[in-house]
Structures are given as structure tokens and as C-alpha cells.
Design goal:
Length: 348
């Protein structure tokens, strides 16, 4: 039934009818998307390590995404795309599990208090400790929307579709989900990197960002500081950057908070961007999801995100649905569905 639905969707796409040309939906990336992905990565600028502006690295990410969609137990992310009017206009990623090939490192922010036995003076300061506390969690990331589309709820569509992917194959994903956000940059460089990681490497932030995007942050963990870092020994600018999100990531923080993510005091080891955490089953999208066969195709219902398919056939779109599993005709046409086909949906 799902295969038949996918064939119907492909028929609509190839035919290029009005509904298909104007459709907005989420789908997995394929090899033919490489050039469009590269253009998006270039427009994203520095610091978005999950979407490096490197063609070979992006090709590897697409290939790895394909393997993950086929059920392989690999590191890396399932790469989803936002398609609008036949053009790739955004990305989002789901890493089924962190720490598959290499340990997954974070800094945990702790608090230190010391008191002098001579004069009673007390000092308090934060300490960064290298930990693997978040290893094995599912991770959502790689959220990037074409700047020309911002303000049209496309970011919400892309972001929340990742939870539909998880809901449709829940057993495959971990009981805890994290979101590792891009850290604060000033004039294109990271104050935290300059003060910490940059002291251990003969490279500037731009070069470190390029390597981090291609190979991941394992090279930082391999050679970076292993002992706790007393933050009061860092420059003020670096201290202020700890746990601060990139200016372009503020909307993402809002979306994540609405979904149920919270800040538990973890930051990225590269740029000190915040890592937010949630119990997977407590995520709003997971808890509000309804699944089953389509009962009817008719107008009306609640504004919803609607998904169908598994693996490479996964598709999602914004439309209308009811708790009784009826969906609107436009969504049915966009996803190539008829009554009886299996879907999952939750309120938009």
C-alpha cells in the first residue's frame, strides 16, 4: 500500500500537474539534490557544521542518509529536505543515535564554590567538564531554511516534520532526544573557540569550522583540553558566549522549547552553543501524534502536519486532518494518498 502511494506521488511529480508543481512537502534527500544542497550550505554561512559547504562532504551525507533510511546501523543523519514549487529550499536532520562510531562529547556546566578559611571570603564560578552523558541519544539538527522563505512558517514545517519521522518508526530511535545548537559568533568567528580550542590547534575558526563540518568534532576531542576548564580564567567575551545561541538560531530555540526541549547545562565542545534535551516520548509531536489508515478525504479538520511512508518513501506536508483520520484533498494529492493508506499526523 505504501509502495503504491509512492508510485502515485511519483506519477504526479513526473506529470508536473498544477497541484504537484505548487506542492510544499518534506522528503528525504537524494543524489540529484547535491547541487541544491551545496547552494543552501553556502548561504548558511559558517558554524552550521551539519551542513558544510563542501560538495564531497554533502555527497557523503546523502549516501549515509540513504543507508540509514534502509535500516543500516551507522553514524550520521537522515537528511530531510523542504521542497517548495519543485525547488529544494530547506533542510532538517535526524541522527538516530549519537556515539555510534566515536564517543559523543559535550561540556557540562557545573558550579564551583570555594571559601577561604582565613578571611571567610567566598568565590563562585562555572566549570566546564568534558563528558559523554548524552551518548546514545537521538539528535535533531541541521535546520536550515532559505532566507527568502523565513516568516512563512516553513521553519516550523521543517523542524516538526522530524518528529513525524521519529513517530512513524519510534522503536528505531532513542528514549532521549537532543538538539545541539550553533553557538554565538562575532564577526564570523567564535569567541569560545579562540579562547579554548584555538589554543590547542594551529588554525583559525574558519579552518576549524571547515574541518568540523567535514569530519565532525572528534578532532577537537582528540587533541583538546581534557581537564575541567575554569570559566573565570577565560576572556569575558568567551565566557559570555558559553550557552549562547547563534543569532540565526533564536527562532529554532523557540520551536524547540515549544516542543518540550529544556536546557540542562550542556554545551557543544566546538563553539559552546547550547545543547537542549527532551525525553523522546514527552515531545509534543510524539505525544500528539495520531496514526492509522485514512478514513476519508474531505475538506475541514484541524491544521496539521501529515506524514506517510517509511524510510526512503517518507513524505510529510502541512494540511488538515481529523482525529477520525480524514485528511483534506490537497494533502492527499500532494502525498499521493487515497482512503485506506496509512498516515500519522499531529496539530501544526
Amino acid at each position: 500500500m505504501l509502495f503504491a502511494a509512492l508510485l502515485r506521488w511519483l506519477d504526479n511529480w513526473v506529470a508536473g500537474g498544477q497541484t504537484s508543481r505548487m506542492a510544499t512537502f518534506i522528503r528525504p534527500a537524494i543524489e540529484a539534490d547535491l547541487d541544491a544542497l551545496l547552494a543552501l550550505a553556502i548561504s548558511a554561512g559558517p558554524g552550521l557544521t551539519n551542513l558544510p559547504a563542501d560538495k564531497a562532504a554533502l555527497a557523503d551525507r546523502i549516501a549515509r542518509s540513504d543507508a540509514l533510511l534502509d535500516g543500516d546501523d551507522l553514524s550520521g543523519a537522515i537528511l530531510l529536505l523542504l521542497e517548495v514549487d519543485g525547488q529544494v529550499r530547506g533542510t532538517g536532520m535526524v541522527f538516530p543515535r549519537t556515539g555510534v562510531d566515536w564517543p559523543f562529547y559535550s561540556y557540562r556546566i557545573g558550579r564551583m564554590t570555594q571559601r577561604s578559611s582565613l578571611d571567610g571570603r567566598m568565590v563562585r564560578f562555572d566549570v566546564l567538564t568534558l563528558v559523554n552523558d548524552l551518548e546514545g541519544a537521538t539528535e535533531v539538527g541541521g535546520l536550515m531554511i532559505d532566507p527568502a522563505l523565513r516568516g512563512g512558517a516553513y521553519g516550523r514545517l521543517m523542524a516538526r516534520s522530524r518528529y513525524l519521522l521519529i513517530a512513524r518508526d519510534r522503536a528505531r530511535f532513542a528514549d532521549r532526544t537532543i538538539a545541539d545548537l550553533r553557538g554565538y559568533l562575532k564577526d564570523g568567528t567564535s569567541p569560545f573557540w579562540d579562547a579554548v580550542g584555538g589554543r590547542f590547534y594551529a588554525m583559525d575558526f574558519a579552518e576549524a569550522d571547515r574541518i568540523n563540518g567535514i569530519t565532525g568534532n572528534q578532532f577537537i576531542a582528540d587533541l583538546g583540553p581534557r581537564h575541567p576548564i575554569y570559566t573565570n580564567m577565560l576572556p569575558d567575551e568567551a565566557q559570555a558566549a558559553i550557552g549562547r545561541v547563534h543569532d540565526d538560531g533564536r527562532a529554532a530555540v523557540t520551536l524547540l522549547a515549544e516542543e518540550g526541549f529544556i536546557d540542562e547545562g550542556y554545551v557543544d565542545i566546538f563553539d559552546a552553543g547550547p545543547t537542549l534535551i527532551a525525553a523522546t516520548d514527552a515531545l509534543r509531536g510524539i505525544g500528539e501524534a495520531h496514526g492509522g489508515p485514512i478514513s476519508a478525504i474531505l475538506d475541514g479538520g484541524t491544521e496539521s502536519l501529515i506524514a506517510t511512508g517509511h524510510g526512503r518513501s517518507f513524505r510529510a506536508t502541512r494540511g488538515r486532518a481529523t482525529d477520525g483520520m480524514a485528511i483534506d484533498p490537497t494533502s492527499a494529492a500532494t502525498l499521493g494518498l487515497t482512503a485506506g493508506d496509512d498516515i500519522t499526523h499531529f496539530p501544526f
